[in-house]
Amino acid sequence: MDKFFKNISFSLFFKVNFLVTTILFLLFLMHNSAYTFISFIMSFFGALSSVILLYVVLYIFFFPFLYFKRFVLYFAGIVFFLVDIGLIIDFFIYRLYKFHINGMVINILTSPSAMDSIELGIAPVVLFFSLVIGLLFFEFFLIRKLFSFPYEQKYLINKKINQKIIVPFIIIVKEKKI
């Protein structure tokens, strides 16, 4: 069982992707100009709480794969990529229609005549594909970079990050009463 907890590369990869997803949430919040300072702070902590809960679920999902050190990184990279793309798609839909992805949106997008009711210019399409390519490049670059670091360096970085995030993590999880 001890080998499960020694996948330092996955631990760092997981934390960097947590930060990326948190930044995407924050960018979405900053796009909305209707916030007061108090409502922004409350929304920020709500978004942070949502990201933490999502990543707790993802960690539970990845736990059985932690023994496979390389496989879990590539598998997690694809899953994190899909999560982040889902957030970006939701952001674009919210910017266009002022509501989030829901059953109606999915029904419209998957209907045979979806392209009759949706007209996108070239800029959103180019931006979306640029983001897709950029995120994929980032995930695989990060994996390669983690493989190149010596174990001791990864261990020290991971230890420093853990010391900084443990208290906020416990507070948010306790607040959710998990």
Automatic annotation (TrEMBL):
Keywords: Membrane, Transmembrane, Transmembrane helix
Membrane-spanning parts: 12-31, 37-62, 71-94, 121-143
Designated name of the protein: Uncharacterized protein
Annotated organism of origin: hydrothermal vent metagenome
